[in-house]
Amino acid sequence: METKFSNPIQINRSIKPNSISASAMRSAFSSRQLKPSEVLEECIANIDLYEKHVGAWAFINIEGAREFARELDNKKPSGTLFGIPFGIKDNIDTFDMPTEYGTDIYLGHQPGRDAACVAEMRASKGVALGKTICTEFAHRHPGKTANPWNIEHTPGGSSSGSAAAVASGMVPIAIGTQTTGSVIRPAAYCGVIGYKPSYGDLNISGVLANTPSFDTLGFFANCVDDLVLIRKALLDESIPKIKKLSLKGARVAIATKPYWEEACASSQQMIEEAARVFEDAGAEVFALDDQGVFENLSEWNIEISGYEFARTLAHERRLAFHKLSEILRNGRMADGFRVAFSSYQAAKKNLELLRIKFDEVMSGVDFVICPSAQSAAPQGLDSTGSADFNMAWTSLHCPVISLPVALEKNTGLPLGLQVVGTRYSDDRVIKFAEAVFKCLTN
C-alpha cells in the first residue's frame, strides 16, 4: 500500500470542512475583517450540514453562544481566544450545559461550576458552543460519533466528538482528554492536529477522573499556531509565539519500539518517507535507543490504569453496576481488581524511574517520530481502535503532537505522525511540530 503526503484538510467525500484556524480568526477579528458572530454562524452552518451524519455533539448551546458572540461584535478584541468557538468533551464539567460523561447513568446531570479549563477559555473570551460526544466514562464503549472522512469508520476515542467536530468544521478548536490515546488517536483518524501536553502542566479540576496517574487534557485544532493560543489561555502570557525553526541540524529519532511491527505498511512507509524529507532538510535521523525503557512499560501501565480506574468509578460500580457496559466491567475495571495495592505501588515507582531514564535517553534527541496509530481509522463504529502507539508516551508523561501529514492511498483516510518530546518541553515540541508540518505538507 502506497502513501502520499498531501494537504491534510483535503476531504474526498461529501463533507467539506471549513478549515480556517483559530489563529486566522483571531487576526481577522483584530483587523475587523470578520465579526465573532459571523464565524459562529459558519460553525453553526456546518453543524446543520454534517451533524446528522457525524454525530459529534452531546449538547449544543446555540442561543447562548450566539448571545455571547453578538456581545463580542461590539467590543474591541481582547482575550487570547476572543470570539473563537470551541467544543468541550462531555467528561468536562460546565455550569450552564449538561455533563453526562458518555453514560445514561448521568442523563441531564448539571454541574454547579465550570471545569478550570472551560472557565479559563471563557475568561479569554472564547465562545463555548457545546459538549462533544465522549465514550462511556472516557473508556472504550463508543458513543454515536462517526468519522467525518467516511462515516462507516470510527473517529477513534475517547475524545470522539471533539476530533470529529474540528474535522468537519463545526468548531476550529475543541478540548479532549487523554489517559492512554484518547486525543492523539482520534486526531489521527479524523485528520486534524492533536496535542497532549506534558502531564501536570494543565489544571484538570472539574474533569472526571479516569486514571489520575495519566489523565491529561488535550486539544484538537487545524494549525499548530492554535496550540499556542490555547496554552496562553490556560497558562499565561509568557507562552512564546512560534518562531520559524529550521530542521537543519535537528536530531530526530525514529521510535521502532515497542509496537513498530504492528504498524501497517502504509504507516511504516509514512515514517520512512518523512525521515528522507527530514534528511534532505539537513536533519540527523536515527533509530531511537530506548535503553530498555519500553521493556516492561506496558505491564506497569495496565496495572496502574486498572487499579485506579476501578476505584475512580466506585460510586457507579456500587449503585449502577448493571448500567455499565460489558467492555468497561470486563476490561479496565476487571483488570484493576486483579492488582494488589503493593503491585500498584511498585508499578508507580517503576514508571517514575523510567521517566527519569527516558529524560536521559532524550538528552541527545530533539524529538521522536512514530505513527500516531497502527493504521488509518478502522471500519465500523463498535470499536474506537487501538491505543498501543500512544500508551508509552502517555505513561512517560511526554508532550505529543499528532500531525495529519499523509493520506492512505487505497482508502483516502488520513494518517497521523506523532512528534514526541521530553517532559516539560512543550513549547519546544510545538516549534518542531510546526517545522515538521510545513516540511511535509508544503
Mean pLDDT: 94
In total, the number of strands is: 12
Tally of DSSP helical segments: 15
Oligomer designation: single chain
Give the CATH H-level superfamily of the domain at 3-246: Amidase signature (AS) domain
Describe this structure in words.
The structure is a single chain. With 442 residues, the chain is an alpha/beta fold. The chain has a domain of 244 residues: Alpha-Beta Complex (Amidase signature (AS) enzymes). 37% of the residues lie in helices and 14% in strands. The protein contains 15 helices and 12 strands. α2 runs antiparallel to α3. About 3% of the residues have low confidence.
Secondary-structure map:
Blueprint (H helix, E strand, L loop, with lengths): L2 E3 L16 H9 L5 H19 L2 E4 L1 H12 L11 E5 L26 H8 L3 E6 L27 H8 L5 E6 L5 H7 L2 E4 L19 E6 L3 H10 L16 E4 L10 H16 L3 E4 L9 H16 L1 H6 L6 H4 L2 H5 L4 H21 L5 E5 L16 H8 L4 E9 L5 E7 L5 H16 L1
Parallel strand pairs: 3-4, 3-5, 8-9, 8-10
Antiparallel strand pairs: 1-11, 2-4, 5-7, 6-7, 6-11, 10-12, 11-12
